[in-house]
Amino acid sequence: MSNIKIDLEMVTLIEMRNVSKDYSKGIHALINVNLRIEKGEFIFLVGASGAGKSTFIKLLLKEEDPSEGKIIVSDEDITHLSRRRIPYLRRNIGVVFQDFRLLPNKTVYENVAFAMEIIEASSKEIRRQVPMVLGMVGLSDKASQYPHQLSGGERQRVSIARAIVNNPSILIADEPTGNLDPETAWEIMKVLRQINRRGTTILMATHAKDIVDVMQQRVIALEKGRVVRDQQRGAYGYED
Amino acid sequence: MKIRTLKYMMKQGFVGLWRNKNMSLASITSVAASLVVLGLIIILVLNINNIASLTQLQFDTVQVYVQEELTEEEISLLGSNIEAIKGVETALYESKEQAMLNMKERWGEQGYLLETLEENPLPNSYVINLEGIDYADGVVSNLKNLEGVDEVKYYKEIIENLLKIAGFIRTVGLALIGILILVAMFIISNTVKLALNARRQEINIMKYVGATNWFIRWPFIVEGVILGLLGAMIALVVVRYGYGYTFDAINNKFTVVFSAYLLPLDILMGRTMMMFAVIGAGVGALGSIVSLRKHLRV
Ligand SMILES: Nc1ncnc2c1ncn2[C@@H]1O[C@H](COP(=O)(O)OP(=O)(O)O)[C@@H](O)[C@H]1O
Ligand SMILES: [Mg+2]
């Protein structure tokens, strides 16, 4: 009886307690943020430009340290994580950016394999894993192409494949559809949804009202650094 | 570290080096130049020290030239006066004829050259063995006051002067090498900086995917070390053939006189090779570490 209950209980992946971030005196990028992200969630982080979305992501990646508060990822307090430990934190977090960040002189396959090579995965694992994730993002037939031969949507799918190839528990995407037309943006959303269904938690910072409204997922809204709304099955908001 | 990782580091190191060929060449040249100068100084100093110690062994004696016009009685009186000086063990008379014979013997095959001399230019002399090197200065000043003494040849002075010159060369040389090595490090760190800039994007991605800091740094250190070692190899070749050539040239021209005093090539080269390799690699590694500290926040 009690075992079943544990199975049904949610597992907290990320927790922020009273987190604030000041860049310099007067610039309060985040103010007193409290929230939990459970394993398997799909979350939109919304807010106007300058609201603090990217700062939120940088705190999770330890690109920036919080000025105040506590951040816990997978039961580990990362508030004062030593610089030597940071790479191991990042191996558990896949990241995707608006500008794709692919290496122009590597093929699609090599760009994805690169993420495994630098954490010293075995060639056997690489040969198994890379084709699999390329399949998941629908790029099996483009493996030997170079980034300049691909459309924007395809490039973003390569960068998603790279972000998930090491099996992170969470995939963070900072405005992944920002550079794409609406139709292509939807393709990306389909891919992300599919990845989420396979158990990967997804946190996506975005401006795209239509997408947020249609997807009906949890929405965390930031305004001038404060969480003004945190809603299950939410919509983007009233205006913007 | 896995073999594949090691291969990756080496490959990235060479790729970086090849991408900025001109700067790499400048780095290698400047390391080579520093080490060639270092090699020259080592060779000079070691040889001078060697000459000094050999000379010390052979001439642990004081030679007194006797005035030309002295009669035989006066010469033998001088001999007993010399033996009376405290610290003198023996005083052996060597006539100018005997001196000439000895020199012919020492010159060996080239001895015939001396036969062309019309007049024997060598003086009559006393060769004095000291009871100990500590008496040398006292004996020499006493000798200078004796009647009938033309000149006191005392090799300690020559040895001391040689050692002074060696010391001077060493000091000036080390300062010069210090400067050259700093220049080499500066050039290497700039070369590595270019390699770093060429790979900024890649490094950025590596950081996000969770590459460790050392994984990111190593290829650049490898590049610096390769640059340093290539410079060391060139310097070694230059010094090896340069010294070999000079050694032979001196031997051919002055046969007997010098060859015994110069250190043979292989003795020099063994030590020099190790030293060059260590310094070359060290300068390269330091150069890249300087650059990484300044330009790479991992
Ligand atoms: N490195 C930085 N130094 C100083 N201020 C910054 C820095 N990064 C962001 N900011 C400021 O922090 C606030 C939040 O920025 P950001 O997190 O990038 O917002 P968003 O991603 O929602 O557009 C903005 O006012 C921005 O100007
Ligand atoms: Mg942003």
From TrEMBL, chain B:
Q: Say which domain of life the source belongs to.
A: Bacteria
| A GO term from the CC aspect | plasma membrane
Coarsely, its chief localization is membrane
Residue ranges annotated for the ABC3 transporter permease C-terminal domain, each copy included: 176-286
Q: Per its UniProt record, what Gene3D superfamilies does this chain match?
A: 3.30.70.3040
Q: Name one GO biological process term.
A: cell division
Record's bilayer topology term: Multi-pass membrane protein
The record's subcellular location field reads: Cell membrane
Which key words are in the record? Cell cycle, Cell division, Cell membrane, Membrane, Transmembrane, Transmembrane helix
Which segments cross the bilayer?
A: 25-48, 172-196, 216-239, 273-292
Q: Where is the FtsX extracellular domain?
A: 62-152
Say which family it is in: Belongs to the ABC-4 integral membrane protein family. FtsX subfamily.
NCBIfam families recorded: FtsX_Gpos (NF038347)
Its annotated function is as follows: Part of the ABC transporter FtsEX involved in asymmetric cellular division facilitating the initiation of sporulation.
Query: What is the protein name for this chain?
Result: Cell division protein FtsX
Organism equals Alkaliphilus serpentinus
